[in-house]
Amino acid sequence: MWDYSEQVKEHFFNPKNAGAVPDANAVGEVGSITCGDALRLTLKIDPDTQTILEAGFQTFGCGSAIASSSALTEMVKGKHVEEVLKITNQDIAEFLGGLPPEKMHCSVMGREALHAAIANFRGEVWVDDHEEGSLICKCFGIDAAMIERTVRENGLKTLEEVTNYTKAGGGCSSCHEGIEEILAKVMAEHGEKFTHTEPAVPVTPAKPYAMTNLQRIKRIEMVIESIRPQLQRDKGDIEVVDIDGKIVYVNLTGACAGCMMEQATLGGIQQKLTEEIGEPIRVLPAHLREAMEA
Amino acid sequence: MNLCEYLQKEGYKIHKLHVDEKGRLDLDEYEELLDDKVAIVSVMWANNETGTLFPVEKMAEMAHAKGVLFHTDAVQAVGKVPIDLKSTKIDMLSVSGHKLHAPKGVGVLYLRRGVKFRPLLRGGHQERGRRAGTENSASIVGLGVAAELAGAHLVVENTEVKAMRDRLEQGILAAVPNSFVTGDVENRLPNTANIAFEYVEGEGILLLLNKMGIAASSGSACTSGSLEPSHVMKAMGIPYTAAHGTIRFSISRYNTMAEIEQVIQAVPPIIAQLRKLSPYWSGNGPIENPQKAFAPTYA
Q1: Which domain holds residue B274?
Q2: Which is higher by pLDDT, A200 or B237?
Q3: Dihedral angle of Cα A211, A215, A218, A220, to the nearest 10 degrees
Q4: First vs last C-alpha separation in chain B
């Protein structure tokens, strides 16, 4: 069990402002259900004075996620919108008397929810259509902008810290290079140089071994067949349109087509293929095929 | 699993067998994979999270028919199910003392006569060169006595302990909506209950149970320090909203029915308390179409 501060325990055992605020005019929903942390923050903001009148949270997550959510609502109540936008995840962690390093992502989730809710209040679109390239951690749906913000605000210097603060890179580990590029970029702004360090517990990608295209296609098909029953259980299905080297083009059909979880489903299939085949396999919707070939 | 990953890094090829939604192995897939290139098969006798029993005796025979060595991790099974090694084709079997009330830190590796192996610890010639280092006599004697006692209580495990486990599950499932037992319910250890509580996260459950003096364990990501839920739940295709809320209760002959009733009383309010905080829950049930209605992302 984690070593939580008294404040964390207090906010977990007796959470403040639990539940949704009735007639809220600001809602922020952030998190990743894959890794088991998600937060819906509801705020009631006075449009004239821009003051947060009420705040409520609904959290699926561990003790420190619930405590961070509770702390956040206490921190923002009665404050001006501009004032709360200055709250950093460090402020949330400090309010709680500190969080274990591995749990810092809970404070980041709080700050992200706050920004999402205020964007929602202002009628801004809190975009989640991850453009190709901007989505770094495909396992948990963490994009480059969030990693960059968190690295900058917390002065992070290692891959391990980025995983502790954002969870990015904690799944299949195929994005470690992408995270290191962000670290290098942000650190360069301060004239620092990023040095690659091996994580304490090596997360080892499967050893690549020579495979012919035909073997790879056969194995991809086998893995897809093993996934199919799960999709069919949810009244969906998958159609493999083409396999081009390590890129698989698919159509999700049935209930999967147009489902909000489509991206997560594709990500899951990609992860499974990468694990099973031992090579980085990309899974893309079939309509991107022409764009990729062009 | 970690050892397999290490070996894979060294260049060995590792095949992982798949399981179905109840955690049962596909023996056809196993048969197909067995050939003269396979060096060794390792199968756990019972899964540590769900208690699901695997047909290791049959699998050992299948391996032997192809001339493949067979190892089983029987840590969870020893003392719970009868094991008669002489009548099986098992070449190697691991036992861990603390699972049968022996001191922690002592275990057994059984090797069938004639099975070649390399010692992990070299140096002294204790145990006829099989393992260097002075023997921990007290623990070894402790394990011997624990094994004798376990043998004598095998029937108790499968009657009284099983009855407590069944009462615990029945009591909790009757009082908590949206909860279910994971694994192969028909075919499992008598002392393990793994229950998934949908729409809540396991660490919160453990913290609240701990406050009431109840010890259990969870397959959630948060408790382990990893970021994904247990690979056991993932392999069975348990949805994330349930996998993160799985709790394993382990019962022994030192528990009492009164304690079981205490847990049955304690669990429902804890789950209700956490569900009140959950974005997937509203009033007395999950929100409509939960996975679609609440689909958070990081922008």
Answers
A1: 154-293
A2: B237
A3: 10
A4: 34
Contact predicate B108/B142, CB 8 Å: no
Q: Which of B201, B227, B295 shows the shortest C-beta gap to A61?
A: B201
Distance, in Å, from the CA atom of B231 to the CA atom of A63, rounded to the nearest integer, reads: 22
Across A183-246, the runs of DSSP E, i.e. the strands, are: 236-244
Q: Of A1, A14, A62, which to mutate for an interface test with B (greatest number of B Cβ within 10 Å)?
A: A62
Position A291 pLDDT exceeds 80: no
- Cβ-Cβ contacts under 8 Å, B241 against chain A: 33, 60
Tens digits of residue pLDDT in B133-172: 999 999 999 999 999 999 999 999 999 999 999 999 999 9
Q: What angle do CA B110, B112, B114 make, to 5 degrees?
A: 135
Residue B34 in tokens: 């067995």
User: What contacts A65, CB < 8 A, 6 or more positions away?
Assistant: A37, A39, A59, A106, A109, B201, B222
| Domains with residue ranges and CATH for chain A | 6-121 (3.90.1010.10), 136-189 (1.10.10.1100), 213-293 (3.30.300.130)
What single DSSP character describes residue A25? S
In single-letter form, the type of residue at position A283 comes to: V
Strand partners, A28: A41
Residues B142, B178, single domain; the answer is no
CB contact under 8 Å between A61 and B204, yes or no, is: yes
Is the distance from CB of A15 to CB of A70 less than 8 angstroms?
Answer: yes
Is pLDDT above 50 for A203?
no
Contact across the interface for B277 and A127, Cβ inside 8 Å:
no
Interface of B with A (CB under 8 A): 5-6, 8-9, 11, 13, 18, 199-204, 206-208, 210-211, 220-223, 225-229, 237, 240-241, 244, 276-280, 291-292, 294-299
Give pLDDT tens digits for A116-127.
Answer: 999 999 988 655
Rounded to two decimals, the ipTM of the complex is: 0.86
Chain A neighbors of B206, CB-CB under 8 A: 1
Centre a 10 Å sphere on the Cβ of residue A89 and count the other Cβ atoms it contains: 26
Mode of pairing for the β-strands spanning A247-254 and B179-181: unpaired
What's the full length of chain B, in residues?
299
Domain end point (choices B135, B152, B169): B152
Pairing of the two strands A282-285 and B40-44: unpaired
Number of H helices, E strands in chain B: 12, 10
Q: Do A36 and B220 touch (CB under 8 A)?
A: yes
Element (H, E) at A58: strand A51-60
Contact state of A140 with B237 under an 8 Å Cβ cutoff:
no
A137 belongs to the catalytic site: no
How many structural domains comprise chain B? 2
